[in-house]
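Training component of the fellowship. As part of building independent skills, the fellow (R.M.) carried out the full modelling exercise for a liganded target. The chosen ligand was AFP. The inputs are recorded below so that the supervisory panel can assess the work.
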Amino acid sequence: MVNKFTTFYRHIVEQERKYPEATGQLSDLLADIALACKVISLEVNRAGLIDILGFTGEENVQGEQVKKLDVYANDVLTHVMKTGGHICAVCSEEEVNFIPIEDKFVENKYVTNKYICHFDPLDGSSNIDVNVSIGTIFSVYKRVTKSGPGSLEDCLQMGTEQVAAGYVIYGSSTVLVYTNGEGVHAFTLDPSVGEFLLSNENIVIPKKSKTFSVNEGNYSKWSSGMKKYVSYLKEIEPESSRPYSSRYIGSLVADFHRNLLYGGIFMYPADHKNKKGKLRLMYEANPLSFIVEQAGGRSSNGEKRILEIGPENLHQRTPLFIGSTEDVIMLEKFLAEEKNEK
Ligand code: AFP
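Fellow's submitted model of the complex:
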């Protein structure tokens, strides 16, 4: 009989069992992340009720010190990571530097702090105050150094080296989407049971879509190739599903999640003002690129696969074009033509 109630933990453990040499540490680490996100989800849902928004340092009605939600999410995730015993460093979009973690479990051969975690604790946080979906993005790498607290070398690895990545979207329900290189799977939080339950296994993004997501307010700052591509999407040609619909929330996780399920291309290009784009390679682009590729989609900076960009610093930015394969390829063609014209 099929188990209708596959929990996130059960799913990752079953995946890990395919590898007899696996120690179970990655499953435990992912379970820690899921737990932290349940705690964050609770606070996100309460945010409208208690006056915790935007007032770091003030007191709430219970006389407790209140924190902004993004600070709170960062604290919860870093605390869970520091105490779990599976990682040697944590990197957060909220922190200037990486946080090396002492190996307190050195005597325990089952917990060997062999992983590194990167987080964007609460992406889209400028949307919190207006009830728009926001999310947590994470990715996991294996350390390259042998022992002790992690180093910058451990933290600055190419996206191809990720062993797992995912996000949690706090929307009409709380959904966790992850990959460990064996497809992309989604779990919906059942608040009454307190578990993420499997809701969508082996997600495949449509090869071609009818939707584009971009902040068109930046149009006048874009390159000519980018302008031409967006104009092309708006032309009428029913055989190629044009004009495309425009959908832009301004919360990357929410825009990405919709496009992953329905098909679409999300774009945040470089422009005359932000010459390197806006989004962060390590915290946003790499994890979502790992997921999209696992779902059969494509991701690039316009010229190069995102996952093959060698990171130079933790907060490095990158242009990002991500989503349905044929749409991303078409965008790359427009950008290549622009280059050839120069
Ligand atoms: P915030 O965390 O400051 O809201 O930024 C969100 C974000 O990093 C990403 O989630 C959005 O896709 C993108 O920025 C939106 O940027 P624009 O407001 O420039 O369109």
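The panel noted the following from the submitted structure. The mean pLDDT is 91. The first strand starts at residue 87 and ends at 92.
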